[in-house]
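INFO  loader      accepted 1 record
INFO  loader      residues=358
INFO  predictor   begin
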Amino acid sequence: MQSFAPTLLHWFADNARDLPWRHTRDPYAIWLSEIILQQTRIQQGQAYWERFMRHWPTVEQLAEASEDEVLREWQGLGYYSRARNLHTAARQIVDLGHFPDTFDDIRRLKGVGDYTAAAIASIAFGLPVAVVDGNVYRVLARHFGIDTPINSTEGKHTFAQLAQELLPHNEAAAFNQAMMDFGATQCTPQSPRCLLCPLADTCDALHTGRTDALPVKLKKMKVKERHMTYIYIRCNDETAIRRRGSGDIWQGLWEPLLADDRTDDAKTSPSGAWGVTTQSSPSPSGELEGGFDWVDQCRLVKANVRHVLTHRVITADFFLLETTVRPQLPPEYIWIREADIDNYALPRLIEILLQSLP
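INFO  predictor   done
INFO  writer      dumping tokens
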């Protein structure tokens, strides 16, 4: 156990990933990178981090932006609550008058959990707080032969305590980043590089043949199926969109006419007076409000587009309605120029659907 940290730090000195946010101690830049990299691969996240830093180089400038602007820059990253939390936290920091510099104060920022707070505290301020994420769970579980489920209450406590015990207090930033890099590039989920591992001599999983079995994780929750039918209205170079409300996916993002929304448990979300089913074409009985008959004018553009979220799989049908008469829509829909739709933050699924428009 005593050799773990020195060996890891020696490995890190030769194998650290060269990432732009590692060339600064600016807590804003470090915080931004940690939020972006939640649920995002570094290859994708780095481009977004660079874009945000160019657009809003200080937390004050980010706080002054509108939520729509932030969501638009975030477009394509998914998990949009992160963007909303980022914006809220930026305003918290500005109201505070400085970037919080203790673990507890950083933890109070919107959207910041224990891992993110520990990463910022150690990297930006040198505080001796260990990070625990998927990479850390995997490295520790394999090296020390721990089979307690990592997503159980006992497991979370066990791994957090062990990581803290291993942390060299005077090298917290390097150790935490070494753990992350080691799990991401050396002790990987599949096909770990055990033959070239500097910790091979003391790795329990390697010596007991349990590399593939560790870490242990409790069974995941069931993935739900959801079917959504969209109608893109093209009327005199304009189209209709609405902002999605709270309490569901894609909160605050924009979408075209949602004609039907059905989950695999047979519960259907009310969709007004459309009378549209989840079949491959709109119901013959359907009319838009005001008696506008759209059935014969709607044509299928894309069918059964599959979009995977964390605990949900969405299948979408996409129709085009071209008309010279504006149908009467519910009040939450607004009319915009088609050419301006890129100015609105859209879910990735909608981006994919719009690309199929003729």
